[in-house]
Every structure is written in C-alpha cells, then in structure tokens.
Amino acid sequence: MIAEADNIWFDGRLVQADKAAISVMSHSLHYASSAFEGIRVYDGVPFKCEQHLARLAASANILGYNLPYTIPEMQDAVAAVVSRNGLRDAYVRPVVWRGEESVGVRGERSSVHLAVAAWEWPSPFSTRQVENGISVQVSRWRRPSPESAPTEAKCANLYTIGTLAASEASQAGFDDALFLSHRGFVADLTGANIFLVIDGELHTPDCDSFLAGITRQTILDGAAELGLKTHIRDIQVAELDTATEVFVCGTAYEILPVARINQTTYSPPVIAGRIRDWYLSLTRVKEPV
Predict the structure, then answer these.
(1) CA separation for the pair 223, 228 (Å, rounded)
(2) 258 vs 197: CA distance, rounded Å
(3) Percent of the chain at pLDDT exceeding 90
(4) CA 62, 64, 65, 66 torsion: positive or negative?
(5) pLDDT tens digits, residue range 9-22?
C-alpha cells in the first residue's frame, strides 16, 4: 500500500508533506536509531491513541532519547494531522529520530525530532483474506534475544528481519512470515501477534523477545467477555499442527485468520470471526484523542 500524506506535523508545526525533509546525514538514517508507532483512526477517532503514544515514549526512552514532547502534546499533534487532512478511516504514523549533528555511532549528541503523518487506510487485506485467512511461512529468521537487541522497543532496526522475512515469504507464494523466538518457540509475524485456538481456548506466546502488541492485550483483556479462556505461554512449533484455528492481530491487521502455516491448514475462522466482530465493535466507541 502506498502512503500518501498531504499535511504532516513536523517538529511542532503542520507542513505540506513535500516540505517535511530531513538531512541525509541524519543519525537515524545511518544507524536505524528511530522509533515509531502505528495508530488506526476509525470514524475520525484515533483508537487507543494514548496507549500507542505511551509506547512510543517508552521506546524512545529505551533508545536513550530525550523526547522533547509529552504524551498530551503528541495526542494534540495526532488530532491536528487527522483534522487537517480530513481523515475518517486512516493510519497515523508518529516517528521519532535523531538528527544530523553527529554521524558517529554514539547518538546522544544529536537532536531529537518528531513527525506525525496520516493517510487514508482501507484494509490492506482482500475480502478473501479477511474471511478465509492468509497463508504464512515459518521464516528462517528468528527474533533476537533481549541481550542482543532492544526487543521491548518498537524501533526501526528490529524491522530489518521483518522486511527480509516478508519478502522471502512473498517470493515463496505466502502472504506473511512467522518468526520463532531465539529459544525456538513460536513468536510472532512480521507485524502482528499470533493466537492459536486449541480445544476452544486461546493460546498466545509469552512475549519474551518481541513486542506484546496493544491489540493482543485488548483481546486478552476482553476474552472473558466472550467466554474464552486464555493462556500466555511458550508454544512449541509442533503445536501449530494441533490447533484448530490460528489468527493474528495488530493495529494494521486488526483480527485476521490464518488459513495455512507452511503445509498445515486450519478450520474456518469461527472463534476468530467472533473476536473480530467484537473487536471492530470496540473501534466505533468514541474516546477522547
């Protein structure tokens, strides 16, 4: 999907997208030291905006940034971009990065910048994929251990293997890729968390080396309302063959069934369909930006 943003909030002011330029000497361009978020807008209202921006602030802190904006100020920036662009159903991308003052590996001498872009966002998946599920390839890449990467941050450098895995999966005829953790357990997809339905109950991996998504937590918090029991635990790869349903979730993915992982196929998304209907009902609840 091509992102086309008209007006961008850039270091404290709204500017036309073609005026929002950064230097090629930016520290983050050279060392992948940027952090970002993705926020969905439904009926003009950003969904769980505060939680996303709190995670952005936490990611920035992990990367050693002195973030120059508070969460309420960033909420105002999101609201301004959505309003100025006249968006109803959209995707918002706040991103924070280091400037060009220092191109050495050390980044604390560089200035910190923040931009917020937003654009129209129809579903990135086809009606067939939403109804019947996507195909997923188990990737040769693994999520790194917390001792080797800032795995609790949503930052650019951790998405390098996501880009590689997604491209390799596409070239092999799959829609997405599934990572294993550094310990060899089921982890997540390139941009989504995963749930297995086993004996009518939900099982999701313990996020010890990858992001515990906001959508994932929303499902865990609301499962009791749907009469579903949940388990957060290490999941063996062999258990992918014992699940009756598999689905993934995330801000961009929402709730998306999985039809196949490698050569293992799954039943039609009955429970996943219930969860998707419930989740989409939440997104229409008006909450303050």
Answers:
(1) 5
(2) 11
(3) 88
(4) positive
(5) 999 999 999 888 99
Q: Which CATH architecture has domain 127-283?
A: Alpha-Beta Barrel (3.20)
Which one is catalytic: 19, 154, 229, 286?
154
Q: pLDDT tens across 236-278, in order? A: 999 999 999 999 999 999 999 999 999 999 999 999 999 999 9
- Burial classification of residue 205, based on how many CB atoms lie within 10 Å of its CB (0-12 exposed, 13-18 middle, 19 or more buried): buried
Alpha helices in 32-159 (DSSP H): 49-62, 71-84, 127-132
Rounded to whole angstroms, how far apart are CA atoms 257 and 70? Answer: 37
Looking up tokens 């339905």 gives 197
Please state the domain extents for the chain.
7-120, 127-283
Indicate if 154 belongs to the active site: yes
Instruction: Compute the distance between CA of residue 239 and CA of residue 184 in angstroms, rounded to an integer.
Output: 13
Which region holds residue 242: left if phi is over 0, alpha if psi is between -120 and 50, else beta? alpha
Bridge-partner residues for 40, per DSSP? Answer: 91
| Topology, domain 7-120 | D-amino Acid Aminotransferase; Chain A, domain 1 (3.30.470)
Q: Enter the tokens of residue 157.
A: 């450098």
Pairing of strands 134-142, 176-180: parallel
